[in-house]
Protein 1
Amino acid sequence: MLGALGGDIALHLLPLHRTATMSGFSVARRCRTALLFAAAIVLSACDADKSPTSLPAPPANASDYSLFDPEAGFIALGVLTGPLGTYDFHTSVVGGGLAVFGADRSIVFATTPPSPSTSLLYYMYFPVDASTWPGLTSAQVTIDEVNMPANRVVDSIRVVRNGTFLPPLIGPSSVTVETNYTDVIIVKFYHSVVEGPPPPPLGKGCTPGYWKQSQHFDSWVPTGLKTTDLVSKLFSNAYLYTLDGKQMSKYTLVQALSFKGGNGTVGAAQILLRAAVAAELNARYPGMGYPLTAVTR
């Protein structure tokens, strides 16, 4: 990393020829500006996915700016949807030639939530010095959203490469793109708000039926338990009972929430474990006020 990217001054798209003068240093931005302009047309052509067409400027220092070839590409990032708050991103790079990038960037939405019509794009990566990018040299650049609050998730990530939309990524909070010296890549993050379970009356908890539903799996997160954890993680003696030829300790917690119960000791064990797993989730959920304490092992 040669240095962090600086400045948040808008770089406006101009026709074909652009000359930027910084402290007497003049740089012609020729066909790269034409590509940017073409990309902007492609991006704005889709009403459902409008993208901002201005970018923060490269470093204002003339000696730093002289590193940038007018024909070089870049990777830019935008937060297109989500709630108010701070969005933190970490950039890591494998391979490629010389480049300038900021390892960490925070984008703050304090008063207006991000939207496609108002969000800006931010430079994340600049290749520099064409002599270090011979032939088909490429870099793997990973942008990872970090420090996300519990109530925010990444719905999708869209990548636009040289004006062409790539298939969306659904669910992950990071994306890795391959770039060469001239690629112009825009990465767009879309978010939504995740609501936890409504707080039950003090001293009461949510039922097994609540905890086993997939639309409520996000409520497991603050408990520290996972749907894939085994019953043995909480109740080691469950191995004493067998259901359908399998020790109950080897079922997952979410499976235990669906135990049907029945006659005899095996049926009673199912009822007990189903209620016990729900009780454990209630006891671990912050602020629920459940009257029982969680298992300590």
Protein 2
Amino acid sequence: MGSAAIKGVVQRYITAPREEGFAVLSVTLPNGSSARICGRGLAGLATGQDVEAVGSWTTHQKWGKQFAATRIRIVAPETSVGMARWLSETAVPGLPARLAAMLVEAFGADVGNHVISGDPLARTVLGDWFETASRALLAQKAEEALGPQLAEIGVGPEVRERIFLEYGVKASERITRDPYQMVHEIEGFSFAAADRIAKATGPQLLSRARLVAAARDAL
């Protein structure tokens, strides 16, 4: 079967994430039916999150039809109510629901760009929450740009979020410049993932940074 993309709401893990990031998820599709999604980079998802997966439909000898994902990302819901809930529970955890609803009413689906750009109305609505929300939504934007590549090497959503929150707009530069340093700085980022990035982007596999990261990973 050819490449396809599906959207759904996470129900539960059928198979919990293994060390290398492989897992099997049960999701509810837009038509109300259930589907199994399997693949690497599925760690760190939670029940109720809206996700979009890219991959292909396959047939497992025992479990039947399932979606083999090459990458998966958390996406914002399409309804206003869902969008406000996503803002307060997923994108900016703890953000008061009334503030999230006000933002969605003012900016609709483009709320993230307005907050990140420092829109005066967004600053007024958010008040003391502005800096926290701006940082979190910037991480969401980085996820859209870099998440698929990291997912392909087995880095789950939870670890990707830590990367984007830590590095912000410099995430891409830090990832390609010295992936081994991330083993020290990002909880849950594995030496194996750093190695896969290094092989793709060019740092020497016998570099001192690699040897130090390997030693830390072995401890």
Protein 3
Amino acid sequence: MTPEQPVFFYDLGSPECYLVGERVMGELDPVPEWEPVHAAALGIELGGGDRDALAAAAAQMGLLAMCWPSVWPADTERAMLTATWAKRGGRAVAYSQAAFRQAFAGGRDLGDEGTVLIAAAACEMHPTAVLKGTGAGGHHASRPRRRPRAVLGPWLSRAGPGRAGAIMKANRVLHLIVTRGGREPVFLADTPFGARGRGRLDRIEVVSVDEGEVVLYWELPAKPAARLLKTLRADLAGLDVDSFLTRWRDADVTADWPL
């Protein structure tokens, strides 16, 4: 964020924030930084707006007709946690706009996990990554490791030579998810200018297509992550499942790993 860039503080459960969010991206120059703030955690109650006035404002802006959620005001804790996590990967705006529209144009409950995951999917955030990254379902947000290594999920123990489909190309049963720790170009990401002076860590996950489970993942600075991603894509396209897993299950990928 530059000193001149405005900041838009919002809670996804606020219809007023929904309408403001639709306006600011087209009317402000520069566009604002979106900063999720959980209103309930600050003791702020949502839900007291004039529905007729809000519906009229949406119509005047040319938006879809307001469709109020059956549960409102909603418990937005999960949705806001996801917004905070999405911001780490530079997807706060895309996710938040999708969530707002699910709630106030689609009438869905933001307190429902399914609504959150639908909004996340709209901006290419995989459900498994969202649940793990936000600590849902007993998982915890990942932390950088001193020597990033491939970490095997439960799926890998079932993916031995006898697994059905093992002779298939790896990209038929596995796919990649990349969560970037910032929006700056790769050549700036590992400098003092990247990730607000802290240097950027990118997360690469290899996920089972059928079961949605994380098979392997790495967290690396942006430049080695980009090199690793290129190699993984080539191997997924060129190797069968067994060969791919044999090569990568014990890979010791460090920041200076020569790819």
Protein 4
Amino acid sequence: MDCRNSLQKIEQELQKHTNPSESVKVRKPLAGYPKNLPKVDICLVNAVGFHRNIAQPRAVVFTTSLYKINCILDERISQDDLEYQELIESKLLAQYKDLNNMFSKLASDILPLYHLYNHQIELEASRESLSFSPLHQ
């Protein structure tokens, strides 16, 4: 009796795991996909998905433009830069106050002007006296 009951239980368990309709498929995460990303509330969906999303009680529907986003980012950057400059002024020694603009984040983002060359090397000897020579003699 015990053997039959045990065999029946084993058969039932095996059928649970082999029946594809009852088994739950778990999606494996991608290998190179970061696991600790922040939750994103912005989505691009079709009309049916959009209608389903706006029907949710906590959903907020709005429109924006890249111009508005850039304006907000510029305001935040300028505020952060002002706070950073105040910190620099409070910690910078008196003899280095004239170099205050060296620590500006905005000034460091500007590239220098392009020049064909920045410095010309003037040779003291004539070109005829220069010749090939090994470096270690």
